[in-house]
Amino acid sequence: MRPIALLFLVVAACAPTAPPANTPAPTDVEHPRLEWGMVLHGGAGVTRASYSAAELPLMEAAFHAALRAGHAILAGGGSSLDAVEAAVRILEDDSLFNAGKGSVFTNDSINELDAAIMEGHTYRAGAVAGVHRVKNPITLARAVMERSKHVMMIGDGAERFAVEQRIEMVDPGYFHTGRRMRSLRKAIEDERRAANPNGTAVLPDPTWRFGTVGAVALDKQGRLAAATSTGGMTNKRYGRVGDVPIIGAGTYASPACAVSATGDGEYFIRWSIAHSICTRTDLAGQSLASAADSVIMGVLHRTGGTGGVISLDNRGHVAMPFNAEGMTRGYVGPDGQTWMRMFR
Amino acid sequence: MRPIALLFLVVAACAPTAPPANTPAPTDVEHPRLEWGMVLHGGAGVTRASYSAAELPLMEAAFHAALRAGHAILAGGGSSLDAVEAAVRILEDDSLFNAGKGSVFTNDSINELDAAIMEGHTYRAGAVAGVHRVKNPITLARAVMERSKHVMMIGDGAERFAVEQRIEMVDPGYFHTGRRMRSLRKAIEDERRAANPNGTAVLPDPTWRFGTVGAVALDKQGRLAAATSTGGMTNKRYGRVGDVPIIGAGTYASPACAVSATGDGEYFIRWSIAHSICTRTDLAGQSLASAADSVIMGVLHRTGGTGGVISLDNRGHVAMPFNAEGMTRGYVGPDGQTWMRMFR
Lengths: 344, 344
What we know:
Number of domains of chain A: 1
Shape of chain A: globular
CATH architecture of chain A: 4-Layer Sandwich
CATH superfamily of chain A: (Glycosyl)asparaginase
Oligomer: homodimer
């Protein structure tokens, strides 16, 4: 085979799948390159009805505060790992995000929390799933990464480890908010109606499906990290675990690329979305924007999934494609200006 | 840039990382291409001391029986999904493999079983982790894939789903074998000695660390499937979950590539080993042998991890690299001849 023909073949093999003609255009493609900084999300699936007029400014204030917390750590020469943990903890502590304090209820009226964290330059990772009494699951995920031989712990075992490691524990009642209990009651009612041919079928509010928070950061030393935390899916059953604590699905970081995802967890697992994006940059030499768009618009969207990612490469490029109505997202760079948007 | 220079760059970006000079050579590279067939493993980390003279022929007979069961299904025009499930069930039912009946004990003297299954041409997947009473976790993983909206369920919730789906349940005592209890006692004793400066430090027997079973198959319709099941790590704590139920880490299948892994689970998660191999064939156009070797010898081995994979592409190429002392492995093609090997 002549070199030029081989070139064509190899380039074709490495090229992103073209999105179908009527795909929503990727958004926010043109962001400034950040010499260092943090990108944050508060979940895809947010709609204009997700927050009341009273709640919206409170939610925005918490989001900007989380960006500023990450900025302060990075500006002081701190690690990207510290920055993403600190930012995610702030959103976990706010009842307006579906993570930590604001976690949604399962069908059994309990809260099952999942989280994962990964450090790009060492490929170290930690994840927890199905915990009920851990105030900040992201901090437990980091403890699994740094203080155990393991990557993933689940359920009661993960909580035993948390107690031994003196991670802050709370009574399960800490997670019981009126907002989330109303969501559960509505979801159960909608499900009952959908199952009853005489009732009115109502699709579940996507806000409850996709709530997740996450951060990716690049520090002054050029190190990347990614962190994701969620309270799961309203009305979920059977100890369902979504993509958040699955390294490679909802969370991934390599020396060159960091991704945190939010959306239909099952799709993110089946296509190893976060790892796919990093592989396209690391192995196939695609730009981060092209890799993230081709996976979200070309794979996730084409196969019927909904959601998005925030991503950052080690040269400070930012990509945040999503195909939902909204995705709460933002970033901060060396100048300390916090940028935030919820819709297109 | 001239095309030839671009060619060089793209090929370099897509090329596998070269393994270090003194890496053990990949084994079994030259296998016949299977028009259709199944590849099976019974775990990496097997040593010449793993089985007694009385146990060895029994283990080999079960392994060949599992290959024949897969062959019978495929020969009759059945699906690769049916074949991998049937083969894994046979090994799960045999106490000489660390999966199902022969699962090892956790530090708490219980058994926590994990399994995953994936169908390549649909990207459907199912996984369960931390179940105690399910006779065949691989069948529960398949039920999660086929009869729920979810991909992964854990713990008690997964068992509630199993009961509802009429999956065969057993008393936890079903998994209590003398062989595995002796392993646990030895591991705890070894750990005690290792922690005691006056005792004799003994490294854990790798047999207990890596036991896993798995299968990949290609059917007459050209469809791939992968399945993996494990009883976990002897003496494990804290609800640790390894790579087996992590789609992309221990188990993955695409339309063109299927992988089942066995080894140091934490390494397989951090590098998304199974997905990495499929991505190198699907996206970067590497041959399966080159992709599997570059990930196992170039990534896993170089970073200090131990284990291996079985893999199969949709043209029937087989690759089974591993860097442990042994990996119980074998395959069967249209001629029905079963090939099995444990060491190099």
